[in-house]
Amino acid sequence: MRILPLALLLASGAAFADDAADLKAKLAQFDSFSAHFSQKVTDSDGNLAMEAEGQMAVERPQKLYWHTQSPDETLLVSDGNTLWLYNPFVEQVTLYSPKEAVGRTPMLLLSSQDPLVWSQFTIKAKGGNYDITPKDEKDAYVTALTVKFSGDKVAGLVIHDASGQLNTVTFSGFEAPRSQDGQVQFSFTPPQGVAVDDQR
């Protein structure tokens, strides 16, 4: 078994720390941003499983709006204290703590400067992009996330999940600060009659 020298391990750890600081600094320049997104999901065999599109927005600290509009509507909203996942088709909304849900929804990193949240991940720069992996993969739904940049703009995400699916998200119409769209709300009130599953 090959054993890496301690100095090399320490240097590698320092490089990853620098990459994390670089990514945080790049994201910190945006108090908020919004975009239209298109999404393609392929299964573990590379077959196209789904295509979707919608609108997204983030705002510091830790606010997220992710509205998939077609083909099936879902809404993901965080106000920094509670994360709501609403599925109109099944008439259910699930509530999570954002800090605990970041392993399932690492898009929350886009609007977070919380050291505790960032400490859960290893971050490595790759070209102009950043690969993010959870340090504890045991219960992670998302096993790897790549944040892609085009210049200073966030261009998209590539998400690998535990089932082997590859989720490629491309942003267009990027605006920073975010467009003041009245439909974008960083809070959610469940419609009457909707089942509520509170997992906070």
From TrEMBL:
Its main location: periplasm. The keyword Plastid does not apply. Keywords: Chaperone, Lipoprotein, Periplasm, Protein transport, Signal, Transport. Residues 1-17 form the signal peptide. It is found in: Periplasm. GO terms for cellular component: outer membrane-bounded periplasmic space. SUPFAM superfamilies: Prokaryotic lipoproteins and lipoprotein localization factors. One of its GO terms (biological process) is lipoprotein transport. HAMAP family: LolA. Belongs to the LolA family. Monomer. Participates in the translocation of lipoproteins from the inner membrane to the outer membrane. Only forms a complex with a lipoprotein if the residue after the N-terminal Cys is not an aspartate (The Asp acts as a targeting signal to indicate that the lipoprotein should stay in the inner membrane). This is Outer-membrane lipoprotein carrier protein. It comes from Gallaecimonas xiamenensis 3-C-1. The gene is lolA.
